[in-house]
Recover the amino acids of this structure.
């Protein structure tokens, strides 16, 4: 029983990180119908930014919020400068651009900071909570932060005028323009928000997976799996999917098949779920007009 | 400008040399009066890019040697190409090095699959493949591959040492193994079982593997804990080794932890894991850790840090891979020195197989490099050491494999 | 106008053919190896283009079928002693079946989800290849080493030249087959399914059959390429078939030009040589910049997409029609 709870607990902690990344993916997808393959590398780069600030002596929370703000601005800049020009181009051209972006961020991080593994502080220190070491203090803190982020994002979209404008711009760009919403800027802000919450994911992941330029590759993979599982056009679904992937992945790896086929099992699950529910568990069913 | 007289002179000289027989073998391609051109491939990009520092440190080391006058009047020109750890790319780059760049030989190419991919080609073309940067046992095979030589203690030997130590210190141990799902990790598993011996192989009660594309090994550690083992072998690269060490502490599991020497860097593994949490971890070491305070006044370490200060960037000082490159390059320079004026490929190979009791600044005191025509593993000694929260404390005697 | 187009295309094809045939007799061993790699990539890109360009099914996982072809060929040659000219076709039949089977679940989900599912396939491939249950066949992490195919005696060719010519013959044959496929009824059906799936079905096109078969054929092409790659490199291991390979295929298809068979050659040239160019460009940044080629490659990708969003073939077409209209 103890081992089972351990697996669930560590699955929850990382699952929270997957959930935040999946949410970032969904935000961009809802606005642009594109999957941002560079999301992970952007998050990693933001995390290095935070690390550099702390290296220069800044306290954790200052570095944290400075990074979130800087990532927000960075996301807007990337959208305006690099993503916007391809809005009219074929979808796959944008995919190539994202691949290019992730290569750029990865190499830049390697060049600026080297490839050695570095430690990244956590604001949550001290003895593990809940005794028996099911969850370290940081892991519990990460889960809390995940919940906070989700609550904030939900509140933003549901209860603020800006959030409403963004939802409108994503769902119906033409009508939104008619109502006076600056759709272009809504997209940019969407990217900024996604980059900001991605940076939170990175900073929560780093104390667990440790900081190096290739840190987010695996995380992004499971975030994709979570988004697919839950439905790429459903924020709630993506979050659920992320957490589910974290927990289920651990359990299946530990109890059902060995860890050496964990990835293949993840693949098989994705395909199985999609065959059964092609839009993911909570995605919208698409009805096409003939 | 070759005038007729010089031409006749030199062709006469060449004819004479040819008649004189093979006493003066031709210098390898890439060797001129002023330069020795050698080549390597390194994963500067892609999943193994952390090892790229090795190439950088070797390039810097040769630059230092060149500034001191080179070897026997010749400067060393290292052409280091990126293969992204992809064997097809390695083949392409190595062919380019041999056929286009015309290097004299290959030095410290990195990775087991990349080196296997090029081994037959290099042996067929009699190009030395020296000091391959991998601990796979298959590269010390002079009988089948006389032009290929290893360098560091091989992984199987190291875990054999662990196995023997476990038998000696904890004969009733129940052993769990965490291993990377590739040649590196699997070699550790094989070596451990060999060290334990066939009749004790059942001491290994649980194995768990991971892929490098996974974010963490936390789940594997929990699984291993569930087996009730009291000894854990961590055959993992730095990032995952750090995670494993931290997680074992966090879940309240206290097995005796053995770890691969690849992850012995205090700065990159013990510190991220947590110095307190890493206490008691045992590894096999052959080099000095640059962050270990006991080497502060050691002349070898001072030599190394002077090198870093002048030729690399400050953050490279603590990088264990920079130490590795520093040592490998020094070994290479020794071989070249021993070649004297005969820089044919055959002689380079002969001298590489003729290293006697070579000591390097960053090798542990007492460890010497030795090679012979039947021994293609230059470094075969290691010492067991335990981490005491601050540095690696050696214990026991030097093991020789 | 169509005649002029056709004549121009034929001229270009002949020119390319002559260059390709003359190449092995003027180039040295290493460059021949690169030439063979270009042809191998071109075959894989042809297959991927059939699926993604003409039939609209996005696959980010073609490295997996390339791997099946490579390992299949290696296992047949090393463990069963088959000669390469039998091993490669056999392995590619295996790939066809694998692709066909994968096509079935792919029917249920489209577009984006297929992209993500194939992405997961690409990531899982090295793990599947190193699964210890298969070690007896795959050689585990040591991989399998293959002997290089020797030219038939009496032709006076080196092994490198022979290998290149074998790749050239395969590429030419498969290109010709793809051309016929695309220009015929099947090709039109594929395009119809891509652009107007429901209308196509109401017109009587058996979409599921076409789509799964297209997947199979596309996998077959990737398998041939993988087999050729195995004998060219002389070695297979799980590391040879990771995610970067699948992504490179996608880059090649898009840069070359979707739904353009001729674009496959451009795409192949791009993914083979541009990373090397990026390497050269960073030399001027000094020694610390060894990591930068990746960033340069990324920047080049973005610039190429900005300049030619429909790929080289698309740009060539636009240029041709521009010239035609002006003239």
């Amino acid at each position: 029983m103890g081992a089972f709870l351990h697996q669930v607990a560590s699955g929850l902690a990382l699952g929270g990180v997957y959930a935040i990344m999946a949410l970032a993916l969904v935000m961009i997808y809802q606005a642009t119908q594109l999957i941002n393959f560079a999301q992970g590398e952007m998050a990693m780069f933001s995390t290095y930014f935070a690390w550099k600030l702390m290296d220069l002596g800044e306290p954790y929370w200052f570095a944290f919020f400075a990074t979130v703000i800087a990532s927000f601005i960075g996301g807007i800049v990337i959208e305006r400068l690099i993503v916007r020009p391809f809005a009219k181009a074929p979808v796959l051209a944008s995919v190539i651009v994202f691949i290019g972006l992730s290569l750029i961020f990865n190499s830049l991080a390697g060049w600026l900071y080297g490839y050695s593994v570095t430690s990244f502080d956590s604001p949550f220190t001290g003895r593990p909570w809940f005794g028996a070491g099911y969850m370290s203090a940081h892991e519990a803190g990460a889960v809390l932060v995940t919940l906070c982020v989700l609550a904030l994002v939900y509140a933003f979209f549901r209860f603020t005028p800006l959030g409403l404008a963004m939802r409108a711009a994503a769902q119906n760009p033409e009508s939104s323009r008619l109502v006076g919403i600056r759709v272009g800027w809504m997209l940019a802000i969407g990217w900024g928000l996604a980059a900001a919450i991605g940076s939170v994911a990175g900073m929560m992941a780093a104390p667990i997976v440790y900081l190096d330029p290739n840190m987010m590759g695996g995380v992004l993979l499971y975030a994709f799996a979570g988004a697919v599982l839950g439905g790429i056009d459903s924020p709630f679904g993506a979050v659920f999917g992320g957490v589910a992937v974290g927990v289920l992945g651990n359990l299946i790896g530990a109890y059902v098949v060995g860890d050496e086929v964990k990835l293949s099992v993840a693949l098989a699950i994705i395909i199985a779920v999609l065959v059964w529910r092609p839009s993911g568990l909570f995605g919208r069913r698409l009805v096409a007009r003939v | 400008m070759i005038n007729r007289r010089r031409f006749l002179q030199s062709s006469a000289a060449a004819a004479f040399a040819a008649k004189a027989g093979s006493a003066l073998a031709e210098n390898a391609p890439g060797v001129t009066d002023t330069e020795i051109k050698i080549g390597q491939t390194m994963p500067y990009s892609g999943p193994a890019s952390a090892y790229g520092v090795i190439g950088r440190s070797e390039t810097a080391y040769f630059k230092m040697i060149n500034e001191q006058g080179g070897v026997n009047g010749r400067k060393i020109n290292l052409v280091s190409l990126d293969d992204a750890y992809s064997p097809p790319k390695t083949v392409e780059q190595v062919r380019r090095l041999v056929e286009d760049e015309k290097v004299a030989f290959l030095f410290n190419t990195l990775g087991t699959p990349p080196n296997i991919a090029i081994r037959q080609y290099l042996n067929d073309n009699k190009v030395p493949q020296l000091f391959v940067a991998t601990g796979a046992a298959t590269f010390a095979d002079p009988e089948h591959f006389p032009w290929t030589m290893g360098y560091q203690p091989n992984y199987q030997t190291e875990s054999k040492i662990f196995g023997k130590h476990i038998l000696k210190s904890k004969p009733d141990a129940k052993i769990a193994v965490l291993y990377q799902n590739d040649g590196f990790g699997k070699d550790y598993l094989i070596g451990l079982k060999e060290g334990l011996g066939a009749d004790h192989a059942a001491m290994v009660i649980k194995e768990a593997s991971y892929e490098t594309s996974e974010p963490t090994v936390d789940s594997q550690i929990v699984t291993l804990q569930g087996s009730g083992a009291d000894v854990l072998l961590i055959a993992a690269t730095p990032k995952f080794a750090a995670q494993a060490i931290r997680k074992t502490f966090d879940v309240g599991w206290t097995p005796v932890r053995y770890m691969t020497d690849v992850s012995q860097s205090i700065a990159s593994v013990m510190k991220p894991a947590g110095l307190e949490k890493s206490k008691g971890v045992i590894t096999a070491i052959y080099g000095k850790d640059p962050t270990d305070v006991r080497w502060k006044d050691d002349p070898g370490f001072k030599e190394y840090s002077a090198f870093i200060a002048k030729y690399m960037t400050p953050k490279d000082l603590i990088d264990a891979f920079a130490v590795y490159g520093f040592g490998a390059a020094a070994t290479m320079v020794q071989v070249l020195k021993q070649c004297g004026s005969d820089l044919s490929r055959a002689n380079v190979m002969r001298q590489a197989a003729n290293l006697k009791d070579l000591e390097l600044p960053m090798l542990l005191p007492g460890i010497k490099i030795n090679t012979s025509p039947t021994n293609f593993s230059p470094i075969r000694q290691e010492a067991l050491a335990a981490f005491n929260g601050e540095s690696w404390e050696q214990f026991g005697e030097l093991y020789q494999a | 106008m169509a005649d002029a187009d056709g004549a121009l295309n034929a001229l270009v094809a002949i020119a390319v053919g002559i260059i390709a045939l003359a190449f092995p007799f003027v180039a040295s061993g290493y460059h021949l190896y690169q030439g063979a790699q270009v042809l191998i990539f071109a075959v894989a890109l042809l297959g991927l283009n059939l699926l993604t360009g003409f039939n609209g099914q996005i696959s980010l996982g073609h490295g997996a079928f390339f791997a099946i072809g490579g390992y299949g060929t290696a296992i047949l040659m090393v463990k069963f002693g088959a000669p390469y000219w039998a091993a490669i076709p056999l392995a590619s039949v295996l790939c066809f079946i694998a692709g066909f089977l994968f096509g079935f679940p792919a029917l249920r989900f489209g577009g984006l989800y297929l992209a993500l599912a194939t992405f997961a396939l690409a990531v899982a491939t090295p793990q599947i290849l190193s699964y210890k249950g298969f070690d007896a066949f795959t050689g585990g992490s040591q991989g399998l080493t293959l002997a290089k195919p020797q030219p038939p005696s009496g032709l006076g060719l080196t092994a490198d030249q022979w290998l290149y010519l074998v790749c050239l013959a395969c590429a030419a044959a498969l290109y010709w087959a793809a051309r016929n496929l695309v220009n015929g009824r099947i090709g039109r059906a594929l395009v119809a399914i891509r652009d107007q799936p429901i209308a196509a079905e109401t017109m009587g096109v058996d979409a599921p059959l076409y789509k799964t078969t297209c997947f199979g054929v596309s996998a077959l092409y990737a398998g041939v390429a993988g087999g050729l790659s195995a004998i060219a490199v002389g070695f297979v291991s799980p590391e040879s078939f990771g995610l970067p390979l699948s992504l490179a295929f996608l880059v090649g298809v898009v840069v070359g030009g979707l739904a353009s068979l001729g674009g496959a050659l451009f795409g192949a040239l791009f993914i083979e040589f541009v990373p090397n160019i990026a390497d050269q460009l960073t030399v001027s940044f000094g020694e610390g910049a060894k990591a930068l080629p990746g960033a340069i490659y990324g920047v080049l990708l973005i610039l190429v997409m900005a300049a030619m969003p429909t790929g080289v073939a698309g740009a060539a077409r636009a240029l041709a029609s521009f010239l035609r209209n002006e003239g």
Q: What stands out?
A: Chain A has one domain: 2-276. The domain at 2-276 of chain A is CATH 1.10.3470 (ABC transporter involved in vitamin B12 uptake, BtuC). Chain A touches chain C through 46 residues (CB under 8 Å).
